[in-house]
Each structure stands twice: as structure tokens, then as C-alpha cells.
Amino acid sequence: MKWIITILLSFFAYATLQAQTDSSCSVEVIQNGKKVNVMPTEKDGIPVITLEQTPGEFVQQSIKLKPGKYRFKVSNLSVDHEVGLYLRAAKTKKSVPNSGTDGHIKKGESKETGVVELKEGEYLYSCPLNPTGDCKITVSSN
After folding, report:
1. Which of 47, 53, 66, 93 is the right S-S partner for 40, CB 3.0 to 4.6 Å?
2. Is beta strand 60-65 parallel, antiparallel or unpaired with respect to 135-139?
């Protein structure tokens, strides 16, 4: 009986560790034309993806994520006026729930979105205030 309990406890410990490892995986980002892998920070166990704006563009032009819940931290690095974030599904063009920040973002400041759930597919993000072109988020379990 003891060995069954030991096996079960070992399995649950492994499953918990695996879940923690999966949630803190690296994110593939195209930044300044180069592919880089970054480790997102976490807030309340939710990965926080950083999106930085300079005049007329996002530093991160393309992001690959696994399906799941995320927050986005939007930073205004050097734009002389307020900026924001417009995140939407590529096919339907519908805004993603909770993807807005609490107000516009002044030069040198950052704000986070609420918790956003992304399912498999493609999403676009941009800033009509900056203005930027459309950048892409690809969500895939592969």
C-alpha cells in the first residue's frame, strides 16, 4: 500500500512541476527583424508578454505563443504622445476581450491589459494612435 501512495505522490509532484514548467516557457518573437526567444515575466501565474512602441512601430513585430491565458504589458518607449493597443482576431477582426489597457500610455510609461485568453489561430495587434501597422501573434500548440 505504501508503494502505491509513493507512486501517486510522485506522479502528482511531476504533473505539478510539468504544469509550472509549461506555463513559463519561452516565447518566440521577431524583434528588429531577428528571431529571438524571450522568457515572459509572470503576474499571478499568468505570463506577461511585453509590447514596446517607438514612433510608428512596435519593437516586437511577430510573436508565437501556445494557447492559453496571457497579459500584455504595453510600453511607450519614445513616442511623444499617448499610445494604446488594439488586439483582435485576424479572421473576424473582433477585439479580444480584456485586451485593453486602463487608459492611454504616455511616453516612458507602461500599462498592462487584463487577462486575455488566446486560442489557436492568428491575431493582429496595432496602435491606431501611434499609428503602427498590423503585427501578428500566431497561437499554436506545436
Report:
1. 47
2. parallel
